[in-house]
Write a structure and sequence with these properties.
- The protein has helices spanning 8-12, 16-35, 38-45, 49-52, 59-69, 72-79, 82-85, 91-106, 109-121, 128-153, 162-182, 190-207, 213-218.
- With 232 residues, the chain is mostly helical.
- The longest helix is centred in the middle third of the chain and has 26 residues, at 128-153.
- It is elongated.
């Protein structure tokens, strides 16, 4: 009797649920939530329309799943990973890793689709706005605050308010995203984004006294004179 073994390709193949979410994100971005039909979604996935309901109760449930797994939700999930927990006593390395992971996320075409969908639909579908806010403001910011609180308690940073420090860190990164990925006609080249990230990190980490002297030296702009006041 032949024994079927699962190949690496089969193991890496997306599940039906994952294919539904991928195609739904693309469909919602193209047609809008209201203009997207379950029939068209089933056609794109390559299954019967009735089979969609084996995975989701309806279109709203699909959109809720997309919100739960993309954007801020994916950032919050990363903060629970071992690689981040291993940086719980390294504030500079933690901040840089988080920023670089965001650059990868921002560069993903699915993230662009997600932002388009959530911007258009979060005020139209009951519960989506609250779910989005919960993932962004509650879960991600709470976890980020815990990291900065841990840094402060260990004497690795100086801050009177870890929550506001976490919000300040996030705010600078959001501005970089707006400048380099949202407002322009095309996204900035990756080296330019990384340069902006490095410049911001050097500034932010110096504000909280996170032991960034060597890091700041490496990123020191050409022509800057250390220890001397800039001319008027």
């Amino acid at each position: 009797m032949a024994v079927h073994t699962t190949s690496a390709a089969e193991a890496a193949a997306p599940t039906t649920r994952e294919r539904i979410l991928t195609e739904a994100l693309d469909l919602f971005a193209q047609s809008g939530y209201g203009g997207a039909s379950m029939r068209e979604l089933a056609r794109r996935v390559g299954i019967r329309e009735s089979s969609l309901y084996n995975h989701f109760t309806g279109k709203a449930a699909i959109l809720e799943a997309i919100v739960s797994e993309h954007g801020p939700a994916s950032s919050a999930s990363r903060l629970e990973e071992l690689r981040y927990k291993q940086l719980s006593r390294q504030p500079a390395a933690f901040c840089r890793q988080f920023a670089l992971d965001l650059v990868e996320q921002w560069s993903d075409p699915r993230e662009h689709q997600f932002q388009k969908v959530i911007t258009a639909e979060r005020n139209r579908v009951p519960g989506i706005r609250a779910k989005f806010a919960d993932h962004f403001y509650a879960r991600e910011q709470s976890m980020m605050t815990d990291y900065f609180r841990g840094f402060a308690l260990a004497g690795l940073v100086k801050t009177p308010d870890p929550r506001e420090t976490a919000r300040l860190f996030a705010a600078g990164l959001i501005y970089i995203r707006l400048e380099h990925y949202v407002m322009g006609a095309t996204p900035s080249p990756r080296p330019k984004v990384i340069e902006a990230i490095d410049r911001y990190l050097a500034f932010f980490l110096s504000l909280i006294a996170a032991g960034t002297e060597d890091y700041s030296k490496k990123r020191k702009p050409k022509g800057e004179t250390r220890g001397k006041a800039a001319p008027d």
